[in-house]
Amino acid sequence: MLILSRKKDESIIIGNDIEITIIEIEDGKVKLGIDAPRNIDIHRKEIYLQIQEENQKASQSKIDMENLKKLLKNPKV
């Protein structure tokens, strides 16, 4: 992990096209501004983890649906 110190209105650059700027520091909170191409997804970590969990559940449902289809095509009597 890279650790940097930045002050208000200072930035870091990631790659050639992502800039993160410190907008405000107040009461132990840091407000960031992120300038990135529209095709880059940006999420808070807790939201990202929820998305990953939902994707995992959805992919599991797909597997279950495929098994159900197989059972319906070949029912055992």
Structure at a glance:
With 77 residues, this protein is α+β, with helices and mostly antiparallel strands.
Task: Describe the protein's architecture and organization.
This protein is an alpha+beta fold. It has 2 domains: 8-38, no CATH class; 43-77. It is built from 1 helix and 3 strands, in the order βββα. It has one helix at 45-73, and strands spanning 11-14, 18-26, 29-35. Strands 1-2-3 form a 3-stranded antiparallel β-sheet, with no helix packed on it. It is elongated. The model has no long low-confidence stretch (mean pLDDT 89).
Write the layout of secondary structure elements.
Elements: E1 11-14, E2 18-26, E3 29-35, H1 45-73
Q: Structural class, please?
A: alpha+beta
Helix content: 25-40%
Relative strand content: 25-35%
Rough shape? elongated
> Could you state the order of secondary-structure elements as H and E?
EEEH
Number of contiguous helices: 1
* DSSP strand tally: 3
Rg computed from alpha carbons, rounded to a whole number of angstroms: 22 Å
Strand order of the largest sheet: 1-2-3
**Straight-line distance between termini:** 58 Å
Mean pLDDT: 89
The low-confidence parts are none
> What is the makeup of the main sheet?
3 strands, antiparallel
Number of domains: 2
